[in-house]
Specification:
The complex is a heterodimer of chains A (527) and B (76).
Chain A lengths: L5 H16 L5 H14 L7 H31 L3 H46 L20 H17 L8 H9 L1 H4 L7 H8 L7 H34 L7 H31 L17 H7 L2 H16 L2 H12 L3 H24 L3 H19 L1 H10 L6 H23 L2 H14 L8 H5 L4 H21 L4 H6 L3 H18 L17
Chain B lengths: L1 H10 L19 H15 L10 H4 L2 H14 L1
Classes of the chains: A mainly alpha (527), B mainly alpha (76).
């Protein structure tokens, strides 16, 4: 069931009504029931996947927790000396680690097989010819269970946290099922941490008119971003990015900016709907975006874009890899060989490249996504290498930290992010060819030739897009100084509801419906 | 303490390590710099910093870092 559909609105309305009618202690059970219904809407058989993940993770986390309790009890009872205690704890840690690794292998294994088998076979065919007489390679063509990447990452984060002793495991499997399947976030994230979401999911929620209204406003804002901006620009962007032979020169820049805009409006709009829906149930989810285009460098932009995924990679991949025995040994070897600077940077750069390789392949099972990921990682490493130079520059020219330079940094970072995104939709060689075409032949006048008319953007579309963009930018600027909804709520009733009505009317009148493409599909639903 | 300050100044000389108690929360130390710091702490102090110890509370101030190093030295 798409989040942008009448079915979803009806489903949400009934679920919210029942949620506030049942006694508080049953609310989480109702949420579990509606979450299972929501997921089963896409095919009941697919429920087996999250069920397998939930049961295996719950069981293994319990075993890890039990090993911890046994260890504590043993130490309390036998009072071993320091050496014995250390040996015993190492033994227990090894046992816990085996359980954690079993869970990780099983669940990431399911994800890898379903998502990457075809990609693997295509590449294997390059090494060992697998193609049949007709020249085609067998493809599994398996359908991905909805949201598999998100719930797998969320549950594996839970398992690692329990292993690390951050919190105790959940004893009740049914409660744990809700953590895995909670319907607003299951298909597109955000990726939540168990200790934070648990507090929200399992307490009683009395109806709070303000929170419910704020949730509805946020859903409306998400619909606006998705239907008025993202879906309006999507066909034109698809046309430009899929036909580099036709759309070169200035169209490369147009496609680049359009692609970034569409991605942002689509994904952040989806998050507004998800977080707003959850807010209506009184359940706060973590934010996934924090005005990313206000960032002054690429690392900062990635700390503000898809924050729960980048946070997950930082905590569970980047830090563990960079402090791993392998990285420490390589760093030590480099230090012994007299390469002191390299020895300091090897762990961080190795871990960085691994994280960005995985980030790339997470976004798509194709080499161009891997290249996109690695390109981001390499730019960040180069930027780190120049860090001392930047610091020297700012020490020498302290006034360069002013608002004009700040604006330049923001524009530069946004453009860099957009240029790197070209690796997602062009082949490796085409990226450089198109950048060359933009630099050498790009002229504004090209936007007035016949090619623009082919994009299907009429004058009215451009006017709506311009107005939508200005509104999105204004909201983003206002957010810098606090919640826009809180300030709107403080305005007189007439003004407040006129604003909401205008937004609602704008979605109804200018939203994109039934243009011959799937208007309701979110990009980030496909993971 | 002086040894740690030397490492920190080598990684990012612009921060005020004497008074700032939000080095990670305020993003004065980035993830890259945190890992470089951990690598050098491991070498200089002869301790192994586990990845689960790389949390803001342990690196927000020089005092917190020293506490972490002392804890790890005791456990070694």
């Amino acid at each position: 069931m798409s989040l942008v559909s009448y079915d979803f609105l009806a489903f949400f309305a009934i679920a919210a009504l029942l949620y506030y009618l049942v006694p508080g202690r049953f609310q989480w059970m109702l949420l579990l029931a509606v979450s299972i219904l929501f997921y089963a809407g896409g095919g009941a058989v697919y429920l087996l996947y999250p069920l397998a993940t939930a049961v295996s993770t719950w069981f293994l986390a319990l075993r890890i927790g039990k090993a911890d309790s046994v260890s504590k009890a043993y130490i309390q009872e036998h009072k071993p000396d320091k050496e014995q205690k250390k040996a015993y704890q190492t033994h227990i840690r090894k046992r816990k680690k085996r359980l954690m690794i079993a869970g990780i292998l099983l669940n990431f294994g399911i994800l890898a097989v379903l998502k990457y088998t075809d990609f693997f076979l295509q590449n294997l065919n390059l090494l060992i010819p697998l193609a049949g007489e007709d020249g085609s390679v067998w493809q599994a063509g398996w359908l991905l269970p909805l949201g598999i990447s998100y719930y797998t990452f969320q549950t594996m984060g839970y398992l690692i946290d329990v292993f690390r002793g951050r919190y105790k495991p959940e004893k009740n499997l049914v409660r744990f099922m809700l953590f895995v399947t909670y319907f607003p976030q299951m298909t597109s994230g955000p990726i939540s941490r168990f200790d934070l979401l648990r507090e929200e999911l399992f307490r009683k929620h009395a109806f709070d008119g303000t929170q419910f209204t704020f949730g509805l406003w946020r859903i409306l804002w998400g619909f606006f971003k998705k239907l008025v901006i993202a879906d309006r620009i999507a066909p034109a962007v698809a046309m430009i990015t899929s036909s580099p032979e036709t759309y070169d020169g200035m169209y490369v820049l147009l496609g680049m900016l359009g692609y970034t805009l569409r991605l942002y409006a689509d994904f952040s709009g989806c998050m507004d709907i998800v977080i707003g829906t959850s807010q209506c149930f009184g359940i706060r989810l973590p934010e996934n975006f924090q005005r990313p285009f206000g960032a002054k460098n690429l690392s900062e932009l990635w700390r503000r874009w898809h924050m729960t995924l980048t946070g997950w990679f930082r905590e569970y991949v980047f830090f563990p890899v960079s402090t791993s025995r392998f990285c420490r040994a390589v760093s030590h070897l480099a230090g012994k060989a007299g390469l002191k600077t390299l020895s300091k940077k090897l762990p961080v750069y190795t871990a960085n490249l691994i994280v960005w390789f995985v980030t790339g392949i997470w976004h798509g099972a194709a080499w161009n996504f891997v290249l996109w990921g690695l390109a981001n990682g390499i730019v960040m490493m180069v930027s780190q290498e120049f860090a001392e130079l930047y610091r020297g520059f700012h020490r020498r020219f302290p006034k360069a930290d002013g608002s004009v330079y700040g604006a330049f940094q923001k524009v530069r970072t946004g453009l860099l992010f957009s240029v790197l995104l070209m690796f997602q939709y062009y082949s490796f060689g085409t990226v450089f060819a198109m950048l060359g075409s933009l630099i050498t032949t790009g002229r504004l006048s090209q936007l007035y030739d016949g090619r623009f008319a082919e994009l299907g953007l009429a004058g009215a579309d451009l006017a709506v897009l311009a107005a939508g963009l200005i509104l999105m930018l204004a909201v983003s600027v206002l957010q810098e100084s606090g919640s826009v909804r809180k300030r709107l709520a403080e305005r007189p009733l007439v003004l407040r509801y006129t604003a909401v009505f205008l937004l609602f009317a704008a979605i109804l009148v200018t939203g994109c419906y039934g243009r011959g493409y799937d208007a309701s599909r979110f990009i980030y639903n496909q993971f | 303490m002086d040894e740690l300050l030397e490492i920190l100044n080598d990684i990012n000389p612009d921060a005020d390590y004497e008074t700032n108690e939000h080095l990670v929360d305020d993003e004065i130390l980035t993830s890259f710099e945190l890992v470089m710091l951990v690598t050098q702490i491991s070498d200089e102090f002869g301790v192994s910093v586990p990845s689960e110890a790389i949390i803001p509370e342990n690196f927000n101030s020089v005092r917190a870092m020293m506490d972490l190093i002392e804890r790890l030295q005791e456990d070694e």
